[in-house]
Write a structure and sequence with these properties.
The chain is α+β, with helices and mostly antiparallel strands. It has one domain: START domain (Alpha-D-Glucose-1,6-Bisphosphate, Chain A, domain 4, 2-Layer Sandwich), CATH 3.30.530. The chain has a seven-stranded antiparallel sheet. Strand 6 and strand 7 form a beta hairpin. The termini are far apart. About 25% of the residues are buried.
Length: about 150
């Protein structure tokens, strides 16, 4: 079992389908985080190029790594794992979307991993939490105003 578990949650006043579409799209999802994100491999599903098997590359300065979608169950669940070039291993990103009573969406986002470099796990986890807290605010505003 991975040594680090980051729990990120929020509520967005937009439908689970709208929120799912945002989070499933690699470039959109990448806007939450620092660095540059782009899809480098499409899934084999022509209806969803960002689906299972698609790969996104994330570059933070000179360091680049890749994440692969492993679950894409619209509108409830997205899972991905780091597959190349990261300072972490045994990674799983799991985004669960639940319809809320107000017509919006509750997001339960968990990231589990082990650091490759000893004693850096808490530092990475804290950085993820901080980046999410900053990056999700404009996304919430955008999704809520679009509805």
């Amino acid at each position: 079992m991975p040594s680090q578990l980051v729990k990120l949650n929020c509520h967005i006043k937009a439908s689970p389908e709208e929120v799912f579409d945002f989070f499933c799209d690699h470039e959109s999802f990448g806007r939450i985080w620092p660095g540059r994100t782009r899809r480098i491999k499409e899934s084999s599903d022509p209806a969803n190029p960002n689906g299972v098997g698609s790969i996104r590359q994330i570059c933070l300065g000179p360091m680049c790594f890749e994440e692969t979608q492993i679950t894409c169950d619209r509108p409830a669940l997205i899972e991905y794992t780091v597959t190349r070039g990261s300072p972490i291993k045994n990674h799983l990103g799991r985004i669960c979307l639940t319809a809320a009573t107000d017509g919006g969406t509750d997001i339960d986002y968990r990231i589990s991993f082990d650091p490759r470099i000893p004693l850096t796990g808490a530092l990475i986890a804290n950085s993820l939490t901080k980046d999410w807290s900053k990056g999700i605010v404009p996304i919430i505003q955008e999704l809520e105003s679009a509805g």
